[in-house]
Each structure stands twice: as structure tokens, then as C-alpha cells.
Design brief:
Elements (H helix, E strand, L loop, with lengths): L1 H16 L13 H4 L10 E10 L7 E12 L4 E12 L4 E12 L1 E2 L5 E15 L26 E15 L3 E8 L18 E11 L10 E12 L2 E12 L2 E9 L9 E11 L3 E10 L10 E9 L2 H4 L14
Length: 328
């Protein structure tokens, strides 16, 4: 019976660890996580920080941290980036760490259109902390008893992976896609092969400049965008818009595919607020759950911060055409 309980626990944990990749609602504020083609896409040197707390009514269930830095080298038309992400599930019982190196190359197709292929190589590590796991034979009426089950040693599994992406853009539009987990590693704590499923994504959008505000010099713009993802049997679509007036930005997004069955139906309505200064931007978003879990999760909170160094003064790249998409 005790062996059976341990096996059941391992199966549940295994499915959690090797399931769908972590995600951000503000995916353009974590561009190196979204696709390696965004490395150096600002035309300058940039750092990004991201924090996501998913389902806060269940404390510590899914908390994700990310940090990245990228730089565009004009002399070789190349973007370079490094990316770090840590995802914690179950109050730290399951810990996932990714460290990536990204590269992109900018090709000027026409006077208006640019093409950016990109690749990323990264290192995965998964860790299960059994010291934080409560087994069935420990549960009592008043306190948690010592377990009579032999506790396995801490399990760590590491492997290397890579992904590739394509991006087309001009000063108004952008469209691209990515394929991830191209190395058929076997991320398994036991002898059963369990390959990380391929992840496909397709994204794009448009920047629509609006008229100048009356009696003011400030511009205001509308951004529309989408992000489609599929990994194994999980399919997801984010679609929405941002409105920018002066330095302030507000966005409204929908996540889900209601035309499919209930399994891939509506997930969340996302509200985003942001501020873009001359060299930095900061954003906040809240995912309001609209699925059957609406009363149980508390949604998700997300905070992003981006700082861009002055490329014109430091790297002299005035001729570079950056992407038109916002950093939220």
C-alpha cells in the first residue's frame, strides 16, 4: 500500500512538472521567452524583469520569476540575449529553472520590411523537494505525524534543449512564429520515457496611429495583437488590444478558444495597465478567471519592468528600425 502511494504521488508530480510550459499574460514584456527573434529587437541594450503569481487563493501554487538582457550589434546585424526563469509550484515542492542563450539576425528584405530568424539554446533543471511533501500516513486529526514511508532522495533532472523562430515586421505590422523543444530529451525521474512535447506558437499585430489630440502635441495609438500557442493537447489563443495616450497604456485581452469544446474554452479576461518613459516601462496585469474555476483561483497577478539603455548615444545605431509592438 505504501509503495502504491509513493507511485501515485510520483505520477501526479511527474504530470505537473512536465506539462504545459509557464506563460506570461504580458508576453511582449518578456520577449526573449516569447521567441528568440526578439533578441536585440529594440535596437539597443535592454533588461527585463517579470513576476507572475497565478491562482493566489491557493498560496504558492504557481509563482514564476524571469529576468533577461539583450543587445543589438549593428556591425553584424545580430541580436544577442540571455534569459533566466524560475517556476515554483506547490510552495516550492516542484522547482523548474531555465537558463537560455538567444541569437537573432536582422535581414532587410525591402525598404520597409525586415526579417529576423532566431534560435535559442537553453538548460532545464527540474527538482522535487520531498521534504515539503506530506504523505498519506502522516495525516492526523491534530498534527502531522512522521511518515512511515521511505522518503526518496531529492530528484533533479537536467537536460539541454533549443527552439527556433521567424519574425517579419515593418514600422506598422509584425507577424511571426516559433517551434520549441526541438531536442527529444527524456525528462523523466524514472525509466519511463516522457518527451517534452513540441510547442508551437504564432503571433502578430498592428500599430494604428491615431490623430493628434486636439490642441496638444501628444500622439495616441492603438495596438492590436494575438498570440496562439499549442503544446500537445493544450491549445490557447490570446487576442486583444492596447490603447496608448502620451506615456500611459491600457489593454484588454481575452484568453481562450470558445468555438472549440469545453476543454479549450474561455479561460480569462486580462486587464493591463502600463507606463512608458523615455528609458523604462512598467506594467501590471490581472487575469480574471472566467472558466469553471472562476470562484476558486483568485485569477493571476503579473508585474513587468523594462529598462532600455540609450543606444543612440552609446552604440550609435540611429539607422536601426525597431519593432512597432509595445513592451506589455
Amino acid at each position: 500500500m505504501r509503495k502504491l502511494l509513493v507511485i501515485i504521488l510520483l505520477v501526479v508530480v511527474h504530470s505537473m512538472v512536465f506539462g504545459q510550459d509557464p506563460q506570461f499574460s504580458q508576453f511582449y514584456s518578456s520577449p526573449l521567452h516569447m521567441a528568440p527573434s526578439f533578441s536585440g529587437a529594440s535596437g539597443k541594450t535592454r533588461i527585463t524583469l517579470n513576476y507572475r503569481d497565478q491562482w493566489p487563493k491557493l498560496p504558492g501554487v504557481f509563482v514564476t520569476y524571469a529576468a533577461a538582457a539583450d543587445h543589438y550589434a549593428k556591425d553584424i546585424n545580430s541580436g544577442f540575449g540571455v534569459y533566466f526563469m524560475n517556476d515554483q509550484a506547490g510552495n516550492g515542492k516542484i522547482n523548474t529553472t531555465n537558463v537560455a542563450g538567444n541569437y537573432s539576425y536582422n535581414v532587410k528584405l525591402t525598404e520597409r520590411w525586415n526579417f529576423r530568424p532566431g534560435i535559442k539554446f537553453y538548460y532545464h533543471q527540474y527538482h522535487i523537494d520531498y521534504s515539503k511533501v506530506v504523505f498519506n500516513d502522516q495525516l492526523g486529526f491534530d498534527y502531522i505525524n512522521p511518515t512511515s514511508v521511505e522518503i526518496p532522495q531529492d530528484n533533479r533532472f537536467s537536460y539541454f534543449d533549443f527552439g527556433s523562430s521567424l519574425l517579419f515586421y515593418n514600422n506598422r505590422y509584425w507577424i511571426g512564429g516559433m517551434v520549441d523543444h526541438l531536442i527529444k530529451a527524456s525528462p523523466s525521474f524514472n525509466d519511463n520515457p516522457n518527451y517534452k512535447p513540441l510547442k508551437y506558437s504564432f503571433f502578430g499585430g498592428a500599430m494604428i496611429p491615431l490623430e493628434r489630440l486636439q490642441y496638444k502635441r501628444d500622439l495616441h495609438s492603438l495596438y492590436t495583437a494575438f498570440h496562439f500557442k499549442q503544446q500537445q493537447n493544450v491549445t490557447q489563443l490570446d487576442v486583444g488590444a492596447y490603447y496608448e495616450k502620451s506615456s500611459f497604456l491600457v489593454g484588454l485581452w481575452y484568453r481562450g478558444i470558445p468555438v472549440l469544446n469545453e476543454k479549450h474554452g474561455s479561460d480569462a479576461i486580462i486587464l493591463m495597465l502600463g507606463y512608458q518613459g523615455d528609458s523604462f516601462s512598467v506594467g501590471y496585469s490581472y487575469d480574471a478567471t472566467i472558466s469553471r474555476l472562476i470562484t476558486n483561483t483568485g485569477g493571476a497577478h503579473e508585474i513587468s519592468f523594462t529598462y532600455t539603455f540609450s543606444g543612440d548615444d552609446i552604440f550609435n545605431i540611429r539607422e536601426y528600425q525597431p519593432l512597432p509592438c509595445p513592451e506589455f
